[in-house]
Amino acid sequence: MKTKILSLFLIASCVFIMASSCEVSTANLTDVKMCEIPEGDLCAEDQAEFATDLEEIYVTAVLNNAPEGTQVTFYWRYLDEDPVVEIDSVTVDIEEVTSSIYSALTAPPAGWPTGRYEVELKIHTDNAEPVKKQFEIK
Known about the structure:
The protein contains one helix and eight strands, in the order H-E-E-E-E-E-E-E-E. Strands 2-8-7-4-5 form a five-stranded mixed beta sheet, with no helix packed on it. It has one helix at 2-21, and strands spanning 28-35, 49-50, 56-64, 71-78, 85-93, 100-106, 115-123, 131-137. Strand 7 and strand 8 (131-137) form a beta hairpin. It has a single domain, classed as Immunoglobulin-like, CATH 2.60.40.2550.
């Protein structure tokens, strides 16, 4: 009988430790859009193509149910190379309850190479699925 109680206690302790090491959240991203110039805090229309002479490309999103201290990382990639080129990554720390976030990628000194690109938005929680937006420079 003591062995069963001890076993149940050990199992319960393991489950508690595993559960406390996971960061589960209801935070999520909606209305993810790309544009040349945001209107206010968000892109009004979602653009999938940009000109080679453009200086900056923006991605904006609405962040829902995110408590203070939530982090979101934007990963910018160039897809037309093998392997894929990681251009930049930017992590935003949410210091107050907010509804919109953004990141911008500035053109390289030699201008944008034509081709396919991607930006991935990832909330730093164990259950968040990343959101990916592909775009093209023509």
